[in-house]
Amino acid sequence: MDEQQTPPAKGRLRLILPLAATLCAAMFFIAVLPQLLTPEEAQTIELMPPSCDIAEGRCTLKQDGLELSFELTPTPPSSARPLSAQLTTRGFSPRKVLLSLEGRDMYMGLNQTELQPAGESRWQGETQLAVCTTGSMVWRALLLIETDDKTYKTWFDFEAK
């Protein structure tokens, strides 16, 4: 009697094993594949802003072997006038630099400029401040500096009329 039941049991086993293997493979791809295909995000490192005032001229930040000098001209910056932004770096090699001009205490809309390479370790771009109806306003020049594996973030607060 055992010999007669063996073939149907083997038949079920032949059906169940490929089905179980397929199910395990599907679960693996559903759980693991998205993580394998998602690129790793660059580590963001916040650099402490220096205490200088870019409304008065170039500011230099030195931290952890990195150095960057940032300047907005003409000084002092004022609303609705073209501004030239210059950044010089030492100790790291940026591949992209974004400058955002934001109202520190009041939302003034999106004002982002990608600075362009201007020689070795130099970046520059043109922008302008939006008009503020209060007469004088504190602005934040936020820099996002991307390298191959990290993003550095810092800012410079300044007053403009």
Give a structural overview:
There is one protein chain. It is elongated, with a radius of gyration of 29 Å. It is of the alpha+beta class. It is built from 1 helix and 9 strands; from the N terminus they run αβββββββββ. The N and C termini lie far apart (99 Å). It has a 9-stranded mixed beta sheet, with no helix packed on it. The mean pLDDT is 85. A hairpin with an 8-residue loop joins β5 and β6. The chain is 22% helix and 42% strand.
Describe what is shown at a glance:
The chain has 161 residues and is an alpha+beta fold. Helix content is 22%, strand content 42%. It has one helix at residues 2-37, and strands at 43-46, 59-63, 66-73, 82-90, 96-103, 112-117, 122-128, 137-146, 150-160.
Please describe the structure with a list of short key phrases separated by commas or semicolons.
161 residues; alpha+beta; 42% strand
Unreliable runs? none
Shape: elongated
Q: Which structural category do the helix and sheet elements fall into? A: alpha+beta
In total, how many beta strands?
A: 9
Separation, N- and C-terminal Cα atoms: 99 Å
Average per-residue pLDDT, rounded, comes to 85
Total helices: the number is: 1
